[in-house]
Amino acid sequence: MENIEVQNTQCEMKTDLNLLLECLKYQMDSPASQKEALITIYSICQQNSDASDYFREIGGLMFVSDLAKSSVHCIVKEAALFTLAVVMESNVYCQQTLCTSELFEDLIFLLTNKNSSVNLKRMSVYVILVLVSNNKSGQTHIRETGCIGVLLQLFRTTLSISEMNLSDENINQYYQLWSSVCSTLCACVNNPQNEDNQNTCCSVFPHAKDWLQSCIKPEIVRPICSFVGLTVANNSYVQEYFVSVGGLDILAEVLIKLVRNSSRSYSSAKLAVVVTKTLDACIADNSAVGDVLVKYHIVSKLLRLLTSDTLDSGEKISIILTIGHCTEGCEENQYDLLKNNGLPLMIQLLTESQDEEVNKAATFVLQNCKQITEKLSLKINEYSLNLNDAEQLKMDLHIKERNLEDYWKKVKEILHRIELLEKEHDEETVRRQIFVDIPQEAVMQTTSKYHKMNASDQKANTERTHTKMQCSQLNCKSDDLVGTTSANNQSSKNGILKTVNLVDASTRESEQNVTLHSADKLHTGSVQKSHTTNERTACEKKQSVPQASEHLFKQPSLTVQNLKQTQVAETVTFCSDSTNKEISIPITSASPKMTDLRCSGCITVGLPFNSRNFSKILHTCPHQCDRHKVILEAEERYKRGLRKSVICNNSSSEAFKSNYEDFL
Predict the structure, then answer these.
(1) 3-state class of 470 per DSSP?
(2) In this predicted structure, what is the pLDDT of residue 34?
């Protein structure tokens, strides 16, 4: 049903256009009828690409073009030109069909003819505007035919600076023509950008500067700013020329006036944004040009404009980008930004705004000011300023540095907190992944080595125990080591020597235990359980065998009371001889006191010397023998291994805690 209606509409449209074209052809003697027919045609083709294309297919486009050139009636010419512009604007094929040098030459004739009315010239400019809009071919034709020169002349002469009473109908017509010329010139240089046309259009910059200097009315400022902004865009030659004729200075002065009035006038704030965009186009990608704005302190004015409540996000982006281009490569403007609290304002916009473009623009400004903040902390007077400015700079700097310090401190605190959180997260991840990172083979090899050493040590201890003459039965859970006594000196010395050998073996076993605990920290608690089971089994089978991992530093409890004095004397004698040999201290009759130069672990025996005070006594001894030094080092390594195991292996923390408390 809808398709039928569309087809009916299309048929009606085509029928109407055919009839209107016939009316134009047969009403040559009736200008009013032709005008009415033309008005009806453009009302049908306006914003209707299909109708415009059909009108071109039936030959109506070329007929209207000839009518605009050949008709002697001004009203017919004006209507024909307007119809051509509407049809070309609706359909690109119609634009390409009429984009010829012949049409541009005909339009030049109409623009330069003294008999042409202002409205006819305006319609001619409108046709040129449509021909060059988004059309590189049209931009080329307008330059090669000299049509752009005619438009520039109209820009200079259409309006008089002294006569700007737009309420006057006659003056208002000329203003409409001048405004149309400005729009057409903008289309000649932009979209796509045409550098040749830009270089041609910059010849009217002095005149545009005079307009801005004499009048800041929106009706004048807006068209000129649009024209200047598009003409200088991405063209360093034109930018420098605009600065050389004083155009940038005039723009800065106009902006200062508008910013001053922006707090009282809404229109002044909006117009100040237009001037700001033009200013930005003049200095973008050309930092040398931006130095001209230093004397006007334009950055402070832009910051003031940025705080206006009447601006939308798009207008704020334009202002921030202009500040960024002003501060890019210009230290004076960067300092002006810092002095006027621009840095906190940029941070505020960056944190509060949800607009991504605003955030990018604010980041651009902050990046520009990174170097100046570093330089200001090292050197104050880096600018070519006079003495008064330098003194003022120092005074202002002292005040602003305090504010900047507080701000940076807050920023650093936030960054520090973030780093701490990230570090804690990374450490937790490492602790969780450590079991995956350590190869299983290394852990199994270490465990296997420990079991072999443990078995050999137990076997050696059993053999030594059978060779002793007398020994007291020990409890596995007690804190005392087995001490061996004998009735004669030779057997006593042999027993003590075996005890010393047992300590050496126990020391080696303790070192192996430290290695095992390091492996246990990276593995599961199964190895530790196996180690505990082995020790418990050995204790049950042979209670007289000391437990090296738990009772390494215990002293024996003597059971034969009548031989106590002999045991003490012989032990002291043996340890003294052994110690003297190790530390090479000659023992002579001249020595003041022999016990002062001996190891406390060697001379302290009996009940006062047990596992609880063993470490304390040895630590306070200034003359430790090598044997007891090794024992103390093994003890420290064992304690460190326990602490690490308790921290890293949460699953076996209770078992380690129990062993650690028993040890202490």
Answers:
(1) strand
(2) 94
What confidence tier does 645 reach under pLDDT thresholds 50, 70, 90? confident
| Euclidean distance between CA atoms 96 and 88, whole angstroms | 8
CB of 354 closer than 8 Å to CB of 315: no
Q: At what angle do helices 236-244 and 266-283 cross, to 10 degrees?
A: 120
Euclidean distance between CA atoms 599 and 576, whole angstroms: 9
Residue 607 pLDDT > 60:
no
For residue 548, pLDDT over 80 is answered with no
Task: Indicate yes or no: pTM above 0.90.
Answer: no
Distance CA 361, CA 321 (A): 6
Q: How far apart are CA 188 and CA 202, in angstroms?
A: 12
How far, in Å, CA of 429 to CA of 426, rounded?
5
Distance from C-alpha of 211 to C-alpha of 190, rounded to nearest angstrom: 22
The alpha carbon of 203 is separated from its chain's Cα centroid by a whole number of angstroms, namely 44
Q: Comparing C-alpha atoms, which of 290, 309, 218 is closest to residue 248?
A: 290
Nearest alpha-carbon partner for 141 in 172, 175, 173, 107:
107
- Name which of 454, 443, 457, 459 is nearest 527 in CA terms: 443
Q: Which CATH superfamily is domain 205-378 in?
A: Leucine-rich Repeat Variant (1.25.10.10)
C-alpha angle 148-151-154 in degrees, rounded to nearest 5: 155
Distance CA 301, CA 305 (A): 6
Q: How many CA atoms lie within 13 A of 84 on its CB side?
A: 32
Of 8-17, 175-184, 363-372, 542-551, which gets the smallest average pLDDT?
542-551
pLDDT at residue 482, as a whole number = 32
C-alpha–C-alpha distance, residues 181 and 156, integer Å: 10
Mean pLDDT across the chain, nearest whole number?
A: 75
* Token output for 257: 């006036």
Range with lowest mean pLDDT among 259-263, 267-271, 412-416: 412-416
262 pLDDT exceeds 80?
yes
Task: Determine the distance from the C-alpha atom of residue 504 to the mean position of all C-alpha atoms in its chain, rounded to a whole number.
Answer: 61
Q: At what angle do helices 101-112 and 60-70 cross, to 10 degrees?
A: 30
C-alpha radius of gyration, the chain, whole number: 50
pLDDT attached to residue 10: 87
Report whether pLDDT(341) > 50: yes
Q: Is the Cβ–Cβ distance between 218 and 271 less than 8 Å?
A: yes
Q: Which distant-in-sequence residues (6+ apart) come within 8 Å of 575 by Cβ?
A: 598, 599, 602, 603
Closest CA to 216 of 206, 204, 225, 229: 225
- The domain locations on the chain are 1-97, 99-202, 205-378
The predicted pLDDT at position 495 comes to: 40
Residue with token string 């930092």: 287
Residue 280, number of CB atoms within 10 A of its CB: 21
| pLDDT tens, position by position, 169-182 | 888 999 999 999 99
Buried b (16+ CB within 10 A) or exposed e, 430-440: eeeeeeeeeee
Lowest mean pLDDT among 26-30, 284-288, 453-457: 453-457
Beta bridge partners, 485, equal 470
Region 583-588 average pLDDT: 39
- How many angstroms separate the CA atoms of 598 and 624, rounded? 7
C-alpha count within 13 angstroms, C-beta hemisphere, residue 618: 24
Q: Which of 335, 227, 352, 333 is nearest to 282 (CA)?
A: 227
Q: In the structure encoding, which two tokens stand for residue 294, read together?
A: 């230093």
Residue type at 166?
L
Coil vs helix vs strand at 163: strand
